[in-house]
Amino acid sequence: MEKFNNITEKDSGYIYNIYSKKPLFVEKAIGTYIYDDQGNKYLDFLSGIAVNALGNRHKVVVEAIENQLSKYLHVSNFFFQSPQILLAEKLIAITGLSKVYFSNSGTESTEAAIKLTRAWANPKKKNTIIALKGAFHGRSYGALSLMEQDSYKKNMYPFLDNCKIVDSNDNIEKIINEDTAVVFFEVIQGEGGIRTIPSAFLQSLLKLKAKYDFLIVIDEIQTGIGRTGKYFAYENFDIKPDIILSAKALGGGLPLGAIICSEKVSSVWQYGQHGTTFGGNPLACAAGLAVLNYIDDKFLSEVTKKGVYLSLKLGELRLKNNLIEEVRGMGLMVGIKLNEIPAANVVESLFHNKVLVCKSSDNVVRILPPLNVSYEEINIFLEKLEKVLNEI
Ligand code: PLP
Q1: Ligand 1 in contact with 219 (CB < 6 A)?
Q2: Which of 103, 203, 274, 284 is most exposed, with the fewest beta carbons within 10 Å of its own?
Q3: Residue 3 pLDDT
Q4: pTM
């Protein structure tokens, strides 16, 4: 006799139960919509958590994958592969940095950067890694060591030594010194509530860097690949990283991560010091390259314009509805901070109205539409949100 009555029961019966899944059985996903097996159509303002920069199954991405698939799928990093080389060339052209290492995910990019910065710092006898409160860098022991929140770490202690978590409003002149090896941060915290880094923090950091010579690692895993109206969000600020962490949208919907390194750290690792079987998978690199080739200055300025429109309209809604405390973010990475009601309730009600978003810390509803979203789709979202907030 069958142990489970239907396929969703099988999901919880067989798959480790660590996600809170919505009752949406995905049938197909096209553009800004996900369709379920009941014929329902959901407006996708989540984009696979900032993965599908060009929406679901964009033509250029599908074509690039099909084209690569007709040549080879996986061969090993022992051989030269043009999708990797071309994507690395593109990332270097965009950032002006020097070398790329490909991984499979955001977490692995963080892990690689921790190892690389330690390899740079060990001979200099610098030991301390600094990271920020509210940060999210991934789920490995290294990444979690850079994060404060106990909910991610509960019952899994101990973590790495020599990691200090500071508040971005702290006086870092009292914290950073000659023992500081590296400072990790996101310029806009995604999981941490769509919070933008204070410019005073960046100014102090640059001053201290000149004095103590440490590395700056900027986590662009969620903010990168056009999300804020620039290729990488740090370009909106007066700062240049030594290492950029990338993933999510980088692979055009396939698993891919990267660290992009400045000249300063471009020859620290020697043969065999780090590596991966799958990192830089040719299909993922071809898909990611198709996305980056599609994004140009005109596209980025459209992202900025749509982001301004969305935030402006949400600001107007805030004036009409006092459940919204603040609208924050940049480009098409927008957070709506709520008061009185939990963000989870709004996410749930939007889901019942066939709109997909997710929540973030600090009671924030996180909005991550595809970067090529239309104004019409933004208006549909705004209407549904207003309806939901009025009903609550
Ligand atoms: N860093 C940031 C800023 C993220 O948003 C995430 C994922 O949400 C990660 C790191 C971890 O990436 P992944 O889930 O691909 O391991």
Answers
A1: yes
A2: 203
A3: 87
A4: 0.98
Q: Which helix (H) or strand (E) holds 239?
A: none
Q: At 168, phi and psi to the nearest 5?
A: -70, -10
In this predicted structure, the answer to whether residue 1 has a pLDDT above a threshold of 80 is no
Q: How far apart are CA 314 and CA 13, in angstroms?
A: 41
From the list 150, 149, 219, 153, the residue with the least C-alpha distance to 182 is 219
With b for 16 or more beta-carbon neighbours within 10 A and e for fewer, the 137-163 pattern comes to bbbeebbbbbbbbeeebeeeeeeeeeb
pLDDT digits (tens, 9 = 90+) for 291-329: 999 999 999 999 999 999 999 999 999 999 999 999 999
- Indicate whether residue 191 lines ligand 1 (CB < 6 A): yes
Ligand 1 centroid–CA 137 distance in Å is: 6
- What's the pLDDT at 2? 80
Q: How far apart are CA 392 and CA 389, in angstroms?
A: 5
Positive or negative: CA dihedral 281, 286, 289, 295? negative
- N residues, the chain: 392
